[in-house]
């Protein structure tokens, strides 16, 4: 089951990062892992864990290299658990910075995962953009970009677990497993498509996670840089 913790710490604005592809000027960098100690295990510095369930946080900061770029990344492993972390990103106006860009690499998909069903709501790759509304625990709007095991890419639908989350399936199945892939989504356009209106609140939190508890299986992935950028 994928949920999002509405908590975090630091917002970073940068125009570049050493040891990896150049970050577009003026981009808002959520995380590039460069400030994280290599080999750090558990919740990364500047991130907060979730407040439910029994997450294992089997996470590790590792050096990565290859066709997808070089530098540090977060290695996530799940064995029948759900682990999510969140970072507060200030108040991002997605009308100015509508593009969410990130790199990820999925190694193992949760067997039988299907985000449309509560009994199969597991994903190896997850990144959420949170638009908090008071009371945040019941009214926040959350767009979840996921790599699903079976649901076709391009599908958009509400979570079977919580009315606050709407899933956007960015990738599906095993065709691109074990490859570094850079994704770009226009969050503003997705918001309009999902809610039928302009955002009334800024994006304030980004969460990432991995999940295999509903299918009682295993999952593994890596998360690289995450940033907001102008078109």
Describe the structure.
It contains two helices and 13 strands; from the N terminus they run βββββββαββββαββ. It is globular and about 40 Å long. The chain has one domain: Jelly Rolls, CATH 2.60.120. By secondary structure, the protein is mainly β. β3 (58-64) and β4 (71-79) form a beta hairpin. It has helices at 136-139, 187-195; strands at 28-31, 48-49, 58-64, 71-79, 82-92, 99-108, 125-131, 141-148, 156-158, 165-172, 181-186, 203-211, 218-229. 45% of the residues are buried. The strands form two sheets. A seven-stranded mixed β-sheet has the order 2-5-12-7-8-10-9, covered by helices on one side.
Q: What key phrases describe this protein's structure?
A:
single chain; 231 residues; mainly beta; Jelly Rolls; seven-stranded mixed beta sheet; six-stranded antiparallel beta sheet; 2 helices; 6% helix; 42% strand; disordered N terminus
Please mark out the parts with pLDDT under 50 across 5 or more consecutive residues, or reply none.
Answer: 1-20
The largest sheet is: 7 strands, mixed
Count the strands?
13
Shape: globular
> Counting H and I runs of at least 4 residues, what is the number of helices?
2
Q: What would you give as the CATH superfamily?
A: Galactose-binding domain-like
Structural class: mainly beta
Q: Mind telling me the CATH class? A: Mainly Beta
Helix content: under 10%
The value of Rg in angstroms is 16 Å
Q: What amount of the residues lies in strands? A: 35-45%
CATH topology: Jelly Rolls
Instruction: Name the CATH architecture.
Output: Sandwich
Order of helices and strands: EEEEEEEHEEEEHEE
Mean pLDDT over all positions = 89
For the record, the count of structural domains works out to 1
